[in-house]
Specification:
mainly beta
């Protein structure tokens, strides 16, 4: 059963493993918070996210394990601009876009003033091995 999973760039950089289309993955996942996703993804994409990958494997009731095969990957980028005291960078509404990729890249770039926010992954969920 295909599901759409959000893999945040920070999670991948911190504790995640590199993966590509066709790879089998075992992830800890939780339900998404669509409001926060809409700051870094186009609204229609954020609304399609079913799960959020959480490599930290939170032990609370909202986290669970899933196993599947990666069918498709889109790198998600968003424009950032300085605001407030000290020029803290914040996502600029309406600037998010996706680019299809074959595998995740920790150094993916989207251009000047644009940062990688994570990956939108279509995952064919399968029964956990074991």
């Amino acid at each position: 059963m295909p599901v759409v999973v959000w893999v945040p760039e920070l999670t991948l950089t911190c504790c995640g493993s590199v993966f590509g289309v066709g790879d089998s993955v075992d992830w800890h996942v939780a339900d998404p918070e669509s409001d926060s996703l809409e700051t870094v993804l186009p609204r229609d994409v954020a609304q399609r996210i079913s799960l959020v990958e959480n490599s930290h494997g939170a032990s609370d009731d909202t986290s669970r394990s899933t196993h599947g095969t990666v069918l498709e990957i889109h790198a998600a980028f968003v424009g950032y601009a300085g605001s407030g005291v000290g020029g803290v960078l914040s996502p600029v509404p309406g600037t998010a876009f996706l680019r299809e990729v074959a595998h995740v890249e920790e150094t993916a770039t989207g251009g000047p003033g644009v940062r990688l926010s994570g990956y939108v992954v279509t995952l064919d969920v399968q029964p956990s091995p074991g």
